[in-house]
Structures are given as structure tokens and as C-alpha cells.
């Protein structure tokens, strides 16, 4: 199964801080058009009564998997390390749209998925901090998914509404059953999918053209 392994965040910083009620910006921010695994990505955390915009490495490491960039909802309670993060180390990964690939015969095509009413939406994440042999800290995160999307094998990120977001970031809430109840899959009609250039699969391509809608024939590439 493919993972949700590319997404974009194209909001202006002023809009992001207003929409998500961010109190402090702790890391450099710029608009991103083709975010890929192992890169530093913007995340939102709550510490005390304040919300921080920070950045973490996208992908958990090292011992529990190779750059685990997604965590399926069904595995959160079954796996002890994920359950521990669910209780104590939650964050939000803001997103403007994510990419999926459709395979048809000997060709695959690239598509971008956006929310119909939210220009930027909140994907729930969990995080940890890895210490290397010299005790250097490497914050890292993963995105929670549930089910698949649009007849592809790509997991669908869960999206939090404003009320669920507040509870998700609340450090005083540690009950797994309550937290899991917030992670409801949204219906497909809430999303729109449109074709983009297949070059988005190239991690080095990072321009506004990544999110541009193209004719379906231009989104195809032979495999």
C-alpha cells in the first residue's frame, strides 16, 4: 500500500496564524508546494495555553520502521509506542492539499486532493524526539490516516474540524477512547481531486506549478 507521501502547504503565514490561532512562530516558514518524507515540515503544538508553529522531521525513526510517515488509526492502540504518543505527544500538520497516484494499466497519473471548503486543513499527527548517540535531539512526526481515497491505494489523512482540533491539542486530554473518537474519516464529497504534472513525484521539484491543474493526458506517465 502506498502512503500519503506528498503534500503542499501554500497558506500565507498571516492566514495560517489567524486560522489556527497560533500564538508563537518558533521556526522559519515559507510556502511549500511539494513536501516529501524526511523533510522538515511545519507543525502546530500546544504548550500550556499557547499554540506554537514549529517544525519536525516528517517520518518516525529509527527502530520502529523505515521513515514511518503515516500511522493508521487502527494501529494506534495496538502498538505501545504509538499509543504512548497518542496520549502525550500530539500535534497538527497543516495542509493545503495532498497528492495521490492512480494506476491504470501500464500508466499512472498524478492528482492533487483539496478540501472543497477549507483552503488549509488540519491533519492530526503524533510526534516524538529521537536522541542520537551524542544526545542531540531530532523532533519527528507522523500523520494519522484512516481508509483509502478515490479508488486508489493511498491512505486518507484524517482531518480535524475546529472543535476536534482544540481537543486534540489539549495536553490535559489523555483518554485514548476520546482521542480516537475525534479521528473520523470525512466523506469523499468533501474533497476535490484534479490532475497535476507527474513531476510532483520528483522530490526536487518545488514550484507553484506543482499545484497547477492540467489536462488529464498531461498527468500520465508510463510505468
Write the layout of secondary structure elements.
Layout: E1 7-9, H1 13-19, E2 24-25, E3 32-35, E4 40-47, E5 50-58, E6 70-72, H2 80-88, E7 90-95, E8 97-104, E9 107-115, E10 121-131, E11 137-148, E12 155-157, H3 162-169, H4 176-181, E13 191-196, E14 220-222
Parallel strand pairs: 2-5, 5-11, 6-11
Antiparallel strand pairs: 1-3, 1-8, 4-5, 7-10, 8-9, 9-13, 9-14, 10-11, 11-12
Total number of distinct structural domains: 1
- The CATH topology annotation reads as hypothetical protein yedk fold
CATH-defined architecture: Alpha-Beta Complex
Assign an overall shape.
globular
DSSP helix count? 4
Please report the total strand number as a whole number: 14
Poorly predicted runs are: none
Radius of gyration: 17 Å
SSE string, helices as H and strands as E: EHEEEEEHEEEEEEHHEE
Helix content class = 10-25%
Describe the sheet with the most strands: 8 strands, mixed
| Average pLDDT, all residues | 89
Q: Could you tell me the strand content as a percent range? A: 35-45%
CATH class equals: Alpha Beta
CATH superfamily: SOS response associated peptidase-like
Q: Quickly give the structural class.
A: mainly beta
First-residue to last-residue Cα separation: 17 Å
Amino acid at each position: 500500500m502506498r502512503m500519503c507521501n506528498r503534500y503542499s502547504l501554500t497558506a500565507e503565514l498571516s492566514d495560517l496564524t489567524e486560522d489556527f490561532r497560533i500564538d508563537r512562530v518558533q521556526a522559519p516558514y515559507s510556502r511549500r508546494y511539494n513536501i516529501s518524507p524526511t523533510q522538515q515540515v511545519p507543525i502546530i503544538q500546544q504548550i500550556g495555553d499557547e499554540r506554537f508553529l514549529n517544525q519536525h522531521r516528517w517520518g518516525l525513526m529509527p527502530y520502529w520502521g523505515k521513515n514511518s510517515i503515516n500511522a493508521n488509526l487502527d494501529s494506534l492502540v495496538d502498538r505501545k509506542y504509538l499509543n504512548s504518543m497518542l496520549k502525550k505527544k500530539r500535534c497538527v500538520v497543516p495542509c493545503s492539499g495532498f497528492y495521490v497516484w492512480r494506476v491504470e494499466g501500464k500508466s499512472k497519473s498524478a492528482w492533487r486532493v483539496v478540501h472543497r471548503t477549507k483552503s488549509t486543513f488540519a491533519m492530526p499527527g503524533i510526534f516524538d524526539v529521537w536522541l542520537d548517540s551524542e544526545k542531540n535531539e531530532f523532533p519527528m512526526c507522523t500523520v494519522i490516516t484512516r481508509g483509502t481515497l478515490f479508488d486508489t491505494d493511498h491512505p486518507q489523512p484524517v482531518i480535524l474540524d475546529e472543535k476536534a482540533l482544540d481537543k486534540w491539542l489539549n495536553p490535559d486530554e489523555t483518554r485514548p477512547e476520546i482521542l480516537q473518537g475525534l479521528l473520523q474519516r470525512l466523506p469523499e464529497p468533501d474533497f476535490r481531486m484534479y490532475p497535476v504534472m507527474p513531476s510532483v513525484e520528483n522530490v526536487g521539484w518545488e514550484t507553484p506549478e506543482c499545484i497547477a491543474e492540467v489536462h488529464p493526458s498531461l498527468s500520465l506517465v508510463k510505468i
